[in-house]
Amino acid sequence: MLKILLLFWVLSLQIFLPQHTHAAGKEKTHLVLTGSSTVAPLVSEIARLFEDSHPEIQVDVQSGGSSRGIADARRGLAEIGLVSRDLKENEKDLKAFSIAFDGITIILHRDNPVKKLSNAEIVAIYQGKIKNWEKVGGHDAPITVINKSAGHSTLELFTAYFKLKSTEIHPDVIIGDNAQGIKTLSGNPDAIAYVSIGAAALEAELGTPIKLLPVANISPTLENVQNGRFPIRRPLNLVTQKKPTGWVLRFIQFARSKDVRAVIQEQYFVPLPE
Amino acid sequence: MSPCRSDRNLVILLRLLSAVSGVIVLLIIAFLLKEALPLFQTIGLTRFFSDASWHPTEGRFNIRPMLAGSFLISFGAMGLAAPLALFSGIFSLYYAPQKGARFYQGLITLLAGIPSVVYGLWGLLVLVPLIRKLQAPGASLLAGILILALMILPTIALNAHAALLRVPQALIRGAAALGLSRGQIVKRVVLPLALPGISTGIILGAGRAIGETMAVLMVAGNVVQIPESLFDPVRTLTANIALEMSYALGDHRAALFMSALILMAAVLVLVVAAESIEAKTVYE
Amino acid sequence: MSTVPPLTDFVSTKIAPAKKQPVGLIETKNLSLFYGLKQVLQSVCLPIEAGKITAIVGPSGCGKTSLISTLNRLTDLIPDCRISGRVLFEGSDIHAPEVDVIQLRRRIGMIFQNPAPFPFSIKKNICFPLREHGIKDRKEQTERLETVLRDVGLWDEVKDRLTQNALTLSGGQQQRLCIARALALKPQVLLMDEPCAALDPLSSAVVEDLIAALKEHYTIVIVTHNLAQAKRISDATAFFWSQNGMGRLIEQGGTKQVFEAPQNALTAAYISGVRG
Amino acid sequence: MNRLAPAKNEGFAGFVLWSVAAFIVAVFAWLMADILIHGAAQISWDFLSTAPEKAGRRGGILPILVSTLLIMGVCLLAALPIALGTAILLAEFTPEKSAFGRMVRRALDVLAGVPSIVFGLFGNAFFSVYLGLGFSILSGGLTLACMILPLLIRTLEAGLRANPARDRLAAAALGLSYGASLRHILLPGAAPALLAGLLLGGGRAIAETAALVYTSGYVDRMPGSLLDSGRALSVHIFDLSMNVPGGDQNAYASALVLIVLLFIVNVTTAGIVSRWRKTGLAI
Question: I need a surface site. Which of B284, C161, C183, D63 has the fewest CB within 10 A?
Answer without folding.
Answer: B284
